[in-house]
Structure formats: structure tokens, C-alpha cells
Amino acid sequence: DRTPRPITCQELLDLNTVAVGDKFGNVSVLRLPRGADAAAVDISGTRALWDSSREDSTPKLETLCHYHVGEVVTGMTRASLVAGGAESLIYVTVTGRIGALIPFASRDDVDFYTRLEGCLRTDAGRPTGREPQAYRSYYAPVKHVVDGDLCE
């Protein structure tokens, strides 16, 4: 990931995937790709003390999804919204707003909600006149996230 992110919170999703929130109000899910060089990753941190010129310090994470919340995200955790249901990523913001990133169960759900969001974005007029896609893509384009506030 080449985007500089002043991270305010993070949640480890699996060994290679992490969800992060930054001080600009963005939530992103980042993954270390399979082809990443494991020798260049220094878990202990001692290499950074002795090596002042890091030629191998290229960004290794790829962005799986990105979404602009609009407020500084201060905490996030994985939780199930219903007993026995799939885990969701729950986040809270500095003003007390609670939000969730919920994975879809099937490709049909993804297609339906993506089309619904597209129709609502073009057909429904916003009272403020603000374009939802431009707002949600303030720092980087929205990637693999359906705007639940718009579909609500």
C-alpha cells in the first residue's frame, strides 16, 4: 500500500490481513500478498535500529477495501451481530458513531446491493446537494464497499 496512513486503530483479521482506521476518517483492509519476500520482513524491529538505509522498504501491503467514514475512527473489533452469524468489523468514531463492515454471504447479494447503490446514487436527490460517491472517495476511491447509509 503506497498511501501514507497515520493509523489510529487496527484489528488483525488473520495472519496476513489487517483492518486499519486512520486520522483522516478512512477505514481500510490491507493484506500481505503471497509473493511478498518473507526475508525482508523484520518482526523483531532490531534491523531498523542498525540499518539506516533500507533499500528493501518498498510497500508490501495491498488494499482489499477502502471507505471514507468521515470521522476519526478510534477503535475497531471483530464481533458477530447475531448468535452464530458471520463476524463483522465493528468500528467507533471520536464522536461516538458506531458503524460496521459486514461481509456479504453470496455473490448475488453483492450484485444486488451494488446495483441498488448505483440506482440510488443517480436517481435519488440528496437534500444537501452533496455527491455521495465524491464524499466517500475523499482521500482515495471507494473500493469493494457498498454504502449502507445510502441504501438505508
From TrEMBL:
Residues 1-152 form the RSE1/DDB1/CPSF1 C-terminal domain. One of its GO terms (molecular function) is nucleic acid binding. InterPro entries: RSE1/DDB1/CFT1, RSE1/DDB1/CPSF1_C, WD40/YVTN_repeat-like_dom_sf. It comes from the Eukaryota. Pfam families: CPSF_A. GO terms for cellular component: nucleus. This is RSE1/DDB1/CPSF1 C-terminal domain-containing protein.
